[in-house]
Amino acid sequence: MSTIKSSNLGYPRIGENREWKRALESFWNGNISEEELIEKTDEIRLNNLKKQKEQGIDLIPVGDFSLYDHVLDTSATFGIVPERYNYTGGKVDVDTYFAIARGVDDAIASEMTKWFNTNYHYIVPELNNAKPTLVENRALYFYKEAKEKLGIDGKSVILGPITYLQLSKGYEDSEFDQLVDTFTPLYVQILQELAEAGATWVQIDEPIFATNISEDVLAATQKVYETFTKEVPGINLIFQTYFEKVSNYEAIVNLPVKAIGLDFVHGDSLELLKTYGFPKDKVLAAGIVDGRNVWRANLEEKLTVLETIKQFVKEDQLIVQPSSSLLHVPVTKTLEQKIDPVILGGLSFADEKLQEIVILTKGLQEGRTAVEANIKQATEELNNLQATYRSNDQVRKDIANLTAEDAVRHLPFAERIKLQDERFNLPLLPTTSIGSLPQTPEVRSTRTKWRKGEITDQQYEQFVNDNIKRWIEIQEELDIDVLVHGEFERNDMVEYFGEKFNGFSVTEYGWVQSYGSRCVKPPLIFGDVSWDKPITVKESVFAQSYTERPVKGMLTGPVTILNWSFVHDTTPRYDIMKQIALALQKEIEALEENGIKIVQVDEPALREGLPLDHAKWDEYLEASAYAFRLATATAEADTQIHTHMCYSNFEDIFDCIDALDADVISIETSRSHGELVSTFEDNTYTKEIGLGVYDIHSPRIPAVEEIKQNIHRALQTIPPKQFWVNPDCGLKTRKEDETIAALKVMVQAAKEAREEQVALQNK
Ligand SMILES: CN1c2c(nc(N)[nH]c2=O)NC[C@@H]1CNc1ccc(C(=O)N[C@@H](CCC(=O)N[C@@H](CCC(=O)N[C@@H](CCC(=O)O)C(=O)O)C(=O)O)C(=O)O)cc1
Ligand SMILES: N[C@@H](CCS)C(=O)O
Ligand SMILES: [Zn+2]
């Protein structure tokens, strides 16, 4: 009897209809009790497990579910709670757990940052002075729950110690080995308790090994996994990597564990396997179905790859699985009613991907004929999909003819800024915000009514205009210098453009978790991208008509639109990036023609899109900077181009930021508590910079002094002439009263700091 197994690495938490989001937000708003929250989320989790069982998956992940984020869950497991939450030990209660994630009145939230190269965000563990202990064996709880309630002998999923520590902050590099030694026995305890409860498989997620890691870290890893295997011999450990090929293949596959999980979709793991082989005493968990994209797998090709992989392992020591957790794709395509049926036929969300896994496992085990009908169907659907690709000859010609000069502005920054200063005559330390303003339940529900045809286009437009006008008045009242229209007409900064540009399709229910309860619905790119008519001009011009102050046009940049969409591989990614850039160029020209002279082109996904494999960095950064410059190149010299980025470690992309040649960049930074400022210390960055001076992700209203401190800190490295005062991005997620109160404090702080600077200059 063959032993090839089908497996999954993680399942979306959010539920088919975002029930999870609603439960969490109802709890936070005080509309349901903690018991009701637990009841509702238990139901979602058990339903997710049941579905995977019904699909026929052999190794069903348990413990991948979360009330917010799995990295935060790992911190909670070990009682890693920053001092400011007054935690006194024991199991981390729900209120403390959410306080770390979201902040409370007297304690700011922990930093949140991108999970590798995805649009998922995790809560950064703060290890400062922490005394880790095992305060709750969550893995054990979920293992037992699945077994007792559903008869599922699950595969426990835990975040591995090396990745957890590498993603944490609050310690020096020299303390790493000591920390590893501290955590190792705690992990051993988790594993021993799982073994005692009867667990046979445990997936230890170590995605950090898909990045370039040092020899020291590798040595520590060897030691840790030797200990695990020695101390808990009865359990099958899977050392699970994903998102790229591993950087130290030979060392990784020889780690003393039962199985190694590799991504055979991103990065060339197959080439490594062919070159270096695979240990005969190990199981290879082959990530073969793309866990990061929504397109149907070509079963024929996948089976060929699996058959090749099979030659390198002993007998059938193989597990067939997605390339990563399915957290990064929507739940099921069965709800989609409106999308082109041919595109629907070519889609595969989490549930459909699990079907693909089961089919591939069967095909590998029993031979192709056993799954012939499935292969035929997949091939037909994919051929149909390919036949409907919307090609655009003009766009292709334009892309082919592009030169380096096409991506250069009329004048260099030093000349441009003089013209812009003359034109806008802004005060020192000008104030602005990053674009969106509160998308209240009323804004969201009015859009939903409009989409359902319950209100007319005219009524919806009137509603959006009323909000824009009201907020122009509010911003004037607050005395902000550069205003925004507020993005009330947008569901999301990427999906909105996906609805307007040619070449995209959108889904109705294709939600994916981005952070906490917040979800996004990435559009699909399946066609050449082009621009027909203005997209944002109407709202920007309407806003500008109510004020003498400049209103910023607000666009999403080519790199971000590409990175936050589900892109088919029919056309090379960097070509699509250029297509989007050309479309945006036309939009900027349309804004200028209509009197909008400051345009912000957001690029929050630029940093996260940086390939995990350093060898691919240069190509990506060059293509990204080129696309951004292409989008903005035709702007007049006195048009001020802003860009914006969030949550990132900018050191790696500093040169690229400079190469964007944007006149002003705003960076979300307040949650990293000023650490970013030091990035500018040794640099001779001459363009203008706004750093987020307060965290908008918390309902808490900052104090004037607190914001001034952030401004002072920034002014130690950034000359006042270059510095802008703005909040972090994402005001769309806040309530109106909180936003107004916080912006008022921000403007007050900016004015006081401005007066100080003027006084200093007059001395
Ligand atoms: C800035 N960020 C973004 C990222 N990625 C994006 N694609 N967009 C971003 O803005 N990544 C990094 C950061 C942080 N990430 C996010 C992600 C998501 C949000 C957010 O606020 N999401 C909203 C959903 C937004 C949306 O598209 N809403 C739709 C649908 C409205 C809706 O839910 N309607 C209800 C009915 C309502 C009613 O009748 O009362 C329904 O359909 O059931 C819309 O506005 O039309 C979220 O709530 O999760 C922020 C930052
Ligand atoms: N303009 C957008 C940027 C988010 S990264 C906003 O303010 O929400
Ligand atoms: Zn942002």
TrEMBL record:
Positions contributing to 5-methyltetrahydropteroyltri-L-glutamate binding: R18, E19, W20, K21, K114, N119, R518, C519, W564, E608
Domain annotation Cobalamin-independent methionine synthase MetE C-terminal/archaeal: ranges: 429-751
GO process annotations (BP): methionine biosynthetic process; methylation
Protein's pathway: Amino-acid biosynthesis; L-methionine biosynthesis via de novo pathway; L-methionine from L-homocysteine (MetE route): step 1/1
One annotated GO molecular function: zinc ion binding
Cofactor: Zn(2+)
Entry-linked Pfam families: Meth_synt_1, Meth_synt_2
Cofactor notes: Binds 1 zinc ion per subunit.
Residues binding L-homocysteine, per UniProt: I434, G435, S436, E487, D602
Domain of life: Bacteria
Keywords: Amino-acid biosynthesis, Coiled coil, Metal-binding, Methionine biosynthesis, Methyltransferase, Repeat, Transferase, Zinc
Annotated Zn(2+) 1 binding sites: H644, C646, E668, C729
Designated name of the protein: 5-methyltetrahydropteroyltriglutamate--homocysteine methyltransferase
Organism: Pseudogracilibacillus auburnensis
